[in-house]
Amino acid sequence: MSDLNDPRVLFAAERTLLAWNRTSISLMAFGFVIERFGLFLELSGREEIKVFQRHISFFVGESFVLLAAFIAIFSIWQHKRILRSLRPVEIPSGYNLYAGVWVNGIIGFLGIALSVYLARGFL
To answer: Where is it located (predicted)?
Structure first.
């Protein structure tokens, strides 16, 4: 429980949540690029290494996307723990506490959907 009685604690927690949001979006984009680069190598590469490279890029890219989805969802849990520790005096009246939580939840869901889409295209 915070003893500062200062709304800046809430805003710092929200900045941290949004930083995790940016991190998960970046990891998701990086994973997508890795996975699609394997498809590019399959289309333009030599016959001997096509399949091997495609499998590696798929699994590495898929891992990044799933890691990003996990980070987005885990950061929601972490942020809710922080919110429970705040006192009412530290929360400005009328302030929406759950906008960032909703955004991270949507990002996590979209990461899982992207992972399913990539897996469906691979198989």
So the answer is: Endomembrane system
